[in-house]
Amino acid sequence: MTADPARLAPVLLRPRTLELLSTSIVVTLATSAGAFLLGVATAWTLTRVALPWGGVWRVAACLPLAVPSFVAAFGWMGLVPGLSGIGPLVGVLVLSTAPYVTVPTMAAFVRADQAVADAAVSLGRSPGAAFVTATLPQVLPAALAGTLLVALYALSDFGAPALLRVDTLTTGIYAQFAGGFDRSLSAAMALVLAGLAVACVVAEGALRRRSPRHARGRVVDAARRHLGPFATAAVTAALATVTVASVVVPPAALAARLPRADRYVSGVDDLAVATATTLALGVTAAGVTVVAALPIAWLAARRRGRFVAVLEAITSVGHAIPGLVVALALVSLTVAVAPGAYQGPTALIAAYVVLFLPKAVGSARSAVAAVRPDLEDAALSLGDPPPRVFARVTLPLAAPGVLAGGVLVWAAVMKELPATLLLRPIGVDTLATELWRATSVGAYGAAALPALLLILVGLVPALAVARGIRSIGEDSR
Questions:
Q1: 347: how many CB neighbours lie within 10 A of its CB?
Q2: CB 160 within 8 A of CB 148
Q3: Are the CB atoms for 104 and 404 separated by under 8 Å?
């Protein structure tokens, strides 16, 4: 179905569309700024400050990855009846997405050369000024990569805005799909969303290119700071507050609803199969996505130019388009080109790759950029072809960052709902679709159990990220 171009302009320029656009921009900017500040501050605290139970706090910083934003919003609505509006939405999104900044920035702080900051202090800079001018530029590329993921997530999120009654472009597109007869108009609105995604990618790339590059020689590790009793207690209390708000409140609110699970409750066997399916889809999609991301990440880290910038922007746009739009596009494509693939695993995995490729590209790009190019040059000078150099030199050194991106994809796939609903094979359910089945008929008590299981399976990739960050820190300290 196609739309008359003459009809598209009034739809895109009408006051309602502009209102949705402005709301999406405000939510995205506020969420990105909040997640950047919280993520960088948390990463610095966990890598540069000596705290009691430091390992526990590093794990806690990764646990919000296990809680979908719509589950977090649902939990807070149970705690604060009538909760709604842009402020609560931004708060929920910041708490849910801050690990996208915290995780890569922690790894960057571990790799940062303290000698640069020490030199700045010796030249008369205050510790704060030395951090801003010497240390922050070293971790800024990783923090910006994570912030880009936050911005794209905020643009494309549907569940949390719908629950908190905030009308954004994503909820508008869904309403147009669900209630309109001309769905091509929704596709036109999706182009606006894609344009915002391109703007986010361009802005992140421009900031990253302005970041100074430091020579990677022998790195001087930073000693952890020992704070006084009052400061230590204050920092610990701040970390505990964030952990409770992002990780403890949502499952506690869900558990409180369990006694009301008197109808539409899924059987134990159904939930067990849905859990296994959720894990299997996550692992498979993560593997395929990482393989697809590696050449793009290498080009972005090693080559500069318009082609690479355009390629990077194209891969990032998919994450800002709602899963519903991607799924419907794949439905049309498979029906027209390969009918046998309709409602098959191939189309579903393809949707996941389109939606979550930026997560893998961002982490892998930062990891590849951190590998010293002279090591690759040395291998090339010994006669190894470029693919062999990448496999034997670049990939092993970049493996922690590449695997971190794969784990982020794994966590995102297990929480994805719209594309899974439309493209899953007949008779196949995940925990997210079981949750949707219960909430769509108002059985919120019955929805509590699959939601809790979704959080539990989400702990697997979240703890994997935490373990990787902890091992990197211990290896380099």
A1: 21
A2: no
A3: yes
Two structure tokens written together for 436: 């949707």
Structure tokens at 136: 């922050």
- Largest alpha-carbon pair distance within the chain? 70
Amino acid letter for position 210: R
Integer Cα distance of 160 and 232 in angstroms: 34
- 352-385 per-position pLDDT tens digit: 998 888 888 877 887 888 787 877 778 778 777 8
Q: Which domains are delineated in the chain?
A: 5-476 (1.10.3720.10)
What is residue 221's three-state secondary structure?
coil
- Asked if residue 169 lies in contact with residue 24, where contact means CB atoms within 8 angstroms, the answer is yes
Tell me the C-alpha distance between 435 and 426, whole Å.
17
Residue 122: which residues within 8 A CB-CB, separation 6 or more?
none
Quickly tell me which residue has 């999406």 as its tokens.
24
* 360 vs 49: CA distance, rounded Å: 29
Task: Please give the model's pTM, rounded to 2 decimal places.
Answer: 0.77
Q: Locate all alpha helices (DSSP H) within 1-68, ordered by sequence.
A: 5-13, 15-48, 54-62
The token duo for 447 is 């929805």
pLDDT grade for 450, boundaries at 50, 70 and 90: confident
Helices H / strands E in the chain, number of each: 23, 0
CA 242 – CA 227 distance, rounded (Å): 20
* Burial category of 207 from C-beta neighbours within 10 Å (exposed 0-12, middle 13-18, buried 19 and up): middle
